[in-house]
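Researcher: Here's the sequence for the chain we discussed earlier.
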Amino acid sequence: SLYRKTYIVKNILVEVHNEEIGEALQYIVPKKRSVLLLSYFLEYSDADIARFLNISAPTVARRKKAALSELKLLIGGTYHAG
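Model: Thanks. This is the structure I predict for it:
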C-alpha cells in the first residue's frame, strides 16, 4: 500500500504504513501515542523509552497498556500483530 502517515516523537519521525492503525493513532493522546510509536514502530525497549521521554519505566508500561487498549477499541479489536 502507498499509505504513509508520519508522526513526530520529540525529534524523531515515525512512519506508519498501515492505514487503519495510522488513522486510529491520531485519536490517542500524544503522551500515550509516543510510547506506542517508539515501542512498536521503532522497537525501543521500555527502558529506552523511559530514558528518551524522561519518565519512569512503570509509566511507560502503564501508558503502553492504556494506548493499546484504546487502539484496539478504535480499530474494532480486529488487528492482530504478527
